[in-house]
Specification:
The protein is α/β, with parallel strands linked by helices and about 290 residues long. The protein contains ten helices and eight strands. The chain has one domain: Alpha/Beta hydrolase fold, catalytic domain (Rossmann fold). Strands 1-2-4-3-5-6-7-8 form an eight-stranded mixed β-sheet, with helices on both faces.
Length: about 290
């Protein structure tokens, strides 16, 4: 039987976002966000460049205390992607009572490492310095990313100099969440060399090189069928953080692919991936 109009968005999501990241899948994932109970403030500048902007998603319901905040960094191989594709992440976090901050950042080939990490650090610094006026708690700011965004998020949490250079402390982060991220990879393809090849020391590009026991608590989520970024990245980083005396929680999703961890934030993907539930539990536990 062909899909009905009602089932078509879920079908697009299941064959797109939960296995990769296609335009049709993003469209399907974002369809339900028009009906969320949140206020979106878009295009706030955290720097002078056109890509140095962020969007806020603030729950409409009144709160008895300042809200925890999640800065979500989008993926796209450091060369593509936009905060606008991930409205479903912002709306879902707001639905759970959190304030979501979704920044853009400059992309390759216009820039190379570490410019996009520095942009994300500036976005986090803006959040720490300004979120209180939107009802957020600057003492409960988390950073989260998917794929390349997870690589950036974990560098911010582990390599302390990025946030320090942006005028804030890495110790100000309450925790960090990585969804299907690469944390320990070789720069051995033309694509990766274009992004990271100019780094004076390739080791400085890898989050796992900055493992420390006093890092903010981590939650690492990965699908075991991920063929874009193997789940061993999350497993190795978890093991090394724990060995250093730090706190790291690992969630592996059997049989799910690269897009599944972020796809679970969509209302259409929650039956297939428990990522929103797991992230929400981690945020509330901190």
């Amino acid at each position: 039987m062909p899909p009905t109009l009602h089932s078509l968005p879920a079908l697009l999501l299941s064959i797109g976002l939960l296995s990769g990241c296609t335009s049709a899948a993003f469209l399907a994932a974002n369809l339900p966000t028009a009906f969320g109970g949140y206020e979106r403030t878009g295009g706030l500048a955290y720097g002078p460049e056109s890509r140095q902007e962020l969007d806020l998603y603030v729950p409409e319901a009144p709160a008895s205390e300042p809200r925890a905040v999640v800065v979500f960094i989008h993926g796209g191989s450091w060369a593509t992607g936009s905060k606008n594709q991930y409205r479903f992440v912002g709306s879902s976090l707001a639905e759970q009572g959190f304030i979501a901050v979704l920044p853009n950042y400059r992309l390759s080939p216009a820039v190379t490492f570490p410019a996009f990490v520095e942009d994300a650090a500036q976005a986090v610094a803006w959040t720490l310095q300004n979120i209180e006026r939107y009802g957020g708690d600057p003492r409960r700011v988390f950073v989260m990313g998917h794929s390349a965004g997870a690589h950036i998020a974990l560098l911010l949490a582990l390599d302390q100099h990025y946030l320090a250079d942006a005028g804030v402390s890495a110790d100000a982060l309450r925790g960090a969440i990585g969804l299907s991220g690469p944390y320990d990879f070789k720069i051995n393809t033309d694509r990766l060399r274009a992004v990271f090849g100019s780094a004076p020391d390739p080791r400085q590009t890898q989050p796992i090189r900055f493992v420390r026991g006093d890092a903010p608590p981590l939650l690492l989520i990965h699908g075991t069928a991920d063929k874009v970024c193997w789940s061993e990245h999350s497993i190795r980083l978890t093991e090394q953080i724990r060995a250093a005396g730090g706190a790291a929680e690992l969630k592996l999703y059997p049989g799910l692919g690269h897009g599944s961890t972020v796809g679970g934030f969509s209302a259409l993907g929650r039956d297939q991936s428990p990522s929103l539930q797991d992230v929400t539990a981690f945020l509330r536990a901190q």
